[in-house]
Write a structure and sequence with these properties.
It contains 1 helix and 4 strands, in the order αββββ. It is an alpha+beta fold and 79 residues long. It starts with a helix and ends in a 14-residue tail after the last strand.
């Protein structure tokens, strides 16, 4: 499990040019070690697996799609 989230952080660091909070310009974040399934209201039963990143200064929350990042865990993998 830890290895999966380390890979998420590594991928985000390589793809995100600006690592500052868009609200307060702080540059320190925390990531919850859970996958969140964001439900699409227009398509019932359809979810978007994502990770949640939180600014440790102002609490701003952002989500990143695991599918777009090509980080979807295998169905057999336990997260």
């Amino acid at each position: 499990m830890k290895e999966f989230f380390k890979n998420v952080i590594k991928t985000l660091k390589s793809k995100c040019a600006n690592n500052e909070c868009p609200v307060c310009n702080h540059n320190k974040f925390t990531m919850l070690d859970s996958i969140f399934n964001l439900e699409r209201s227009s398509l019932k039963g359809t979810t978007i697996p994502a990770v949640m990143i939180i600014c440790i200064n102002c609490g701003y929350i952002r989500h990143h799609s695991l599918g777009i990042l090509d980080l979807m865990p295998d169905e057999e993998e336990t997260i």
